TrEMBL record:
Residues 33-158 form the C-type lectin domain. InterPro entries: C-type_lectin-like, C-type_lectin-like/link_sf, CTDL_fold, DC-SIGN_domain-containing. CDD domains: CLECT (cd00037). The keyword Signal applies. The keyword Signal applies. Residues 1-19 form the signal peptide. Keywords: Signal. PROSITE patterns: C_TYPE_LECTIN_2. This is C-type lectin domain-containing protein. SMART domains: CLECT (SM00034).
Amino acid sequence: MLLFIFVIAFLLGEGCTSALGTDLGPKMPLIVNGSRTYYYGLTHQGTAVQAESFCRKHNMDLLSIETQEEHLFLQQSLLSYLDLNTAQQTFIWTSGKRVDGDRWIWEATGRPVHYKNWWAEQPDNDGGIENCLELWYKPEFPGQIKWNDIYCNNTSRYFICEYNNKDANIDNVY
Ligand SMILES: [Ca+2]
């Protein structure tokens, strides 16, 4: 009986261990766009805090989207990495946080969210608990990735880290 309990506890423990908590990141390419470099965390999922911790561990920040140009670049670039044939919805953490009501900031930079690209009827703050900003790919709208507000402790989200090229110090990503 004790052994049985131990095995169950071990399995549960394994299930709760996010890959984002491991030291080595998934081997994804670094994507350069102008002064910014992005790391697409598209092989492991976790909460917003886990994603942020992963980025910080590697001297990067969780993604902030400052301009339409930046959003469109990421949209086009990301679409080439998603497996569009599986028709799966895809969700990706950014550093966007609701600070109160409909006021949003990019937490990584502390700047207000000026440029916006929400899906229709978003942000809806469903259940009154959606205080994080995610990118949302919907297969029924091919070619588009827009924004949604979502519960920050949701565990089934990918993430993007970024850094300014002049601050590069990310020798341990791989
Ligand atoms: Ca929402």
